[in-house]
Amino acid sequence: MSFSPKMSLVKATPRCQRIGCGRLFIYNVDPAIAYRQREQTMKDIDEYEAFLTSKLDAWSPEQRVAFAAAMVDRWLHTYEKFSADEQWGDAVNLRRILDAVWGHVLERPLSPADCARYAAQIQESTPHLDDFDANEAMATCIILSEALDACGSSESATAAVRAALSGFEAAVPDWAFDPEAQPRMWRKIAARNELNKQLKLVERIGAMPSFDVASISALRKSLSTAELIGKASAPSKKSSAPTGLTNQAAFEQYRNMMTSQLKENPWEPPDGLAFRLAMKFTTPWMARYSRRQKTISGSYGRLADVFAQQALVARNIARDAADNRVPLWDSDTRQYVELIYQNPGNARRQIYGPAPWLRSITSLAMGRGQTPRPIRPGSLR
């Protein structure tokens, strides 16, 4: 088969680059066109998650945090409207936390104590669906929590992907409550619009290998334009969905987070870092229990079965009280756990950190004088 000079493999457009090769001409499609084609061929949320994970794995930590922070900027207006209408919450403080996340991108890193304090403030400002019809505002708080998790974390890619997926919970009101209906919801206009806007954001962040004040300012301004701003579909007049996550939906959400985490390469702390070995072996373990604690507490979405949640917490507390074993941790590991979670030895029965059990065993060890250096509550703030 021969090609005439007038033939081409792809029709030329103003956004295509013409590459000559003898009598054969190939057109290199502009990345923006490629992303639009990608949006049209995405079959479901799982395919998008796989695509996004592969993209973010190749990015720098700064790009990942910037992507997650940009997701918050796209949706924060919904929380601000909710807060103004209901006279509840603290939109000003949430924006202040978001600014701190952007500061982390600009090499003003957040300390573990900063992250812990901000996480508590976000949880206090998160509306519950029992009290408010505020799905987008709740999802925005979850996205901000994920952006905060991405700061300085070895799992920044996973946290940024979760921030993106939470955007669909904001765009489609029933998304989190009915996982079996997600294939149908994926075809909704609101879901497709959210996907298209996220792909545009991926394209922009991917084209920014470094960040400065000017580039971040320009990016943040663009996030409030019609091209990128988050927009939810109108809720159904009468929804049969439960007023919270079902137990099965919560389990599937937790399993998906753990699956993403286990697919990542193990984190290697830098040589010479204090508590290096303790960080290497305990960080993945504590991250897993942290996800479980947030699932149980409702940070990732309020649980519909309140009585089951209360029974589960009561059972965990009872098990804590009955278990007097102390883990065979060395002094570095125990001190590292205390530094991260700031465990006072006088509150064994609180749900704290990654799980009640962790607080119980560390405070028990402290009570027996087996801790190298007691940490006073608030001493690291």
Structure description:
The protein has 381 residues and is mostly helical. The protein has two domains: 200 residues, YP_001051499.1 fold like; 139 residues, no CATH class. Strands 1-2 form a two-stranded antiparallel ribbon. α3 packs antiparallel against α4, α5 packs antiparallel against α6 and α13 runs parallel beside α15. The chain is globular.
Per CATH, the class of the largest domain reads Mainly Alpha
Proportion of β residues?
Answer: under 5%
User: Which CATH architecture of the largest domain would you pick?
Assistant: Up-down Bundle
What share of the residues lie within helices? 55-70%
Query: What is the distance, rounded to the nearest whole angstrom, between the alpha carbons of the first and last residues?
Result: 73 Å
Shape: globular
Instruction: Briefly note the CATH topology name of the largest domain.
Output: YP_001051499.1 fold like
Instruction: Tell me the domain tally.
Output: 2
The CATH superfamily of the largest domain is known as YP_001051499.1 domain like
Determine the mean pLDDT.
Answer: 77
Largest sheet descriptor: 2 strands, antiparallel
Largest sheet, order of strands side by side? 1-2
Low-confidence stretches: 1-37, 343-357, 371-381
Number of helices: 15
H/E series, N to C? EEHHHHHHHHHHHHHHH
Output the radius of gyration.
Answer: 23 Å
Task: Say how many strands there are.
Answer: 2
Secondary-structure content class: mainly alpha
